[in-house]
Amino acid sequence: MHELEAILRVALERVEPGALVCAWLRSVDWPTEMTLLALGKSAVPMALAAKRGLGNKIVDEVVIAPQIPDSSPLGWMSSSHPRISELSAEAATLLIDQSRAARGPCLALMSGGGSALAALPVSSITLAEKARCLELVYAGGATIGELNVVRKHLSQVKGGRLAQVCQWPMTTLVLSDVPGDSLHSVASGPTLPDPSTYRQALAIVRQIAKSSGEAIPHSVLAHLERGTRGLIGETPKQIRDTDVSELLAGIDAVARAAVKVAEERNVAGVQLIPDVLQGSVDHLMRSLLPLVAKPGLWIGAGEATIKLPANLDLQKARGGRAQHLALLLAGEIQGNASVQILVAGTDGIDGSSDAAGAIVDGNSFTRMMQCGVDPVESLERFESARALASIDAQIVLGPTAVNHADIVMIAVRDS
Questions:
Q1: CATH of 3-249, one of 3.40.630.40, 3.40.250.10, 3.30.360.10, 3.40.50.10180
Q2: pLDDT tens by residue, 95-134
Q3: Quick one: 253-412 is in which CATH superfamily?
Q4: Does the pLDDT at position 303 exceed 80?
Q5: What is the pTM of this model?
Q6: Can you point out the beta strands (E) in 49-202?
């Protein structure tokens, strides 16, 4: 196993979601009757930890995750990710019904991925219309923050709507996968107040429509326009006096753990990249390039955005933002024998492939071409996964139940 991958695997073990929940629960005197709500890629280990810590104090529970264990209790369900489906609507309805029917204070455990796992559009918009709108916004290169603004204003559950139907105090514990660690952005903030507005959501979808030439569904535009005129109530803007929210781990949790692991292994010159990595994959690639001239091991966290062409067949494209960025960087370090780069999704999944990411070096492009694969053409077709698989450069982790966006490691030997 490559040393960079080994460091990543140990770092993932050190930010195990259940351990973070257990540690926090020990600091609070919890009531005797509670409702547990868990949503996201880390929902299962978070919920299991809460059940261990609170025992029979939990009288009702809903847990929504990409996969749940066999023989899970009533109220646990697997849902859709990354695209929304009827399962997403069913999951959102389950959360709303349980929040409304809670028999005591609620403990809400939120992690990344929840936006797709639980999605119920407002009554004037169909699920297919909402999915189409979000697909266009994502393909248009919107940031995760912009995407969440739109999601919240088309939803019955996001942007604080879930807490709005609950009459009991709500404690929200969050594992962040978003730049800035804004709690209200993780899973689109179902239980937290939302600072964004209908006006902002409308401006985002209009800009995407203008730049892409694609039509946003009429029902979506009509709903957002009604919201800007005050004909529909805004998302909740203030936290209730009885509610509490806490960040358990930020977007750079895995990167910080990786720094410690590398130091323990006596890797020379380990440095945490101080700023969260964000922006388009091309911008991010350019911002990282200066580091390849600086000896050491540079480790950072963040999330790139990719603007996809309108005519791209998403069913044929294979890869995701991590592998696309890795392949871009491989092209920039061609012939440089002193550099190795890892880019991977900490959740173990990157876009439409089974890989989490990849490790590339100065010889990767040459080896791909020797295998009959044109890496430049692969980038143009958004087929990074196939190109990287041709030289066994992919990192395959499987779902990790950890979700702190992507991690980048740049190892530069002193030449």
A1: 3.40.50.10180
A2: 999 999 999 999 999 999 999 999 999 999 999 999 999 9
A3: MOFRL domain (3.40.1480.10)
A4: yes
A5: 0.89
A6: 58-65, 76-78, 106-110, 170-175
